[in-house]
């Protein structure tokens, strides 16, 4: 979000780069693709339910919840080879990866040119 604007800004170049992701081998990509397909299939199984219906707190269908849980498990195994014990461990890993990325770039980050 821009510091002098109060509305949200969306970007097709930043959306997938929010968290550092380890380098994915072909098996990782295939596993994550399957997870995404399973999530879509679970959502489709509840047609014509809306996104609001499917993701209402305490009302998510069991098969959709299971698809997301499997996605989480696959992703966590990519990061550390097992499920994270808790959110603290997850955050520590993400911050560690961010620090390594910054160090690798020599502390430099991309800067956008100011619009005239």
Question: What's the assembly state of these chains?
Answer: single chain
The largest sheet, given as strand count, sense and whether it forms a barrel, is: none
Q: What is the mean pLDDT?
A: 84
Our estimate of the beta-strand percent is under 5%
Between the first and last Cα atoms, what is the distance in angstroms? 19 Å
Description:
By secondary structure, this protein is mainly α. Helix content is 52%, strand content 0%. The chain contains four helices and no strands. It has helices at residues 26-44, 51-54, 62-80, 87-104. Helix 1 runs antiparallel to helix 3. The longest helix has 19 residues, at 26-44. It is elongated and about 50 Å long. The model is unreliable at 1-5 (pLDDT under 50).
């Amino acid at each position: 979000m821009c510091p002098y604007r109060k509305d949200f800004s969306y970007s097709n170049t930043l959306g997938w780069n929010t968290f550092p992701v380890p380098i994915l081998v072909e098996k990782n990509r295939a596993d994550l693709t399957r997870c995404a397909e399973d999530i879509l299939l679970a959502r489709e199984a509840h047609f014509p339910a809306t996104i609001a219906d499917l993701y209402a707190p305490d009302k998510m269908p069991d098969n959709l919840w299971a698809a997301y849980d499997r996605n989480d498990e696959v992703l966590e195994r990519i990061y550390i080879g097992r499920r994270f014990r808790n959110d603290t461990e997850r955050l520590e890993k993400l911050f560690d990866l961010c620090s390594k990325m910054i160090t690798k770039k020599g502390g430099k980050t991309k800067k956008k040119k100011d619009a005239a």
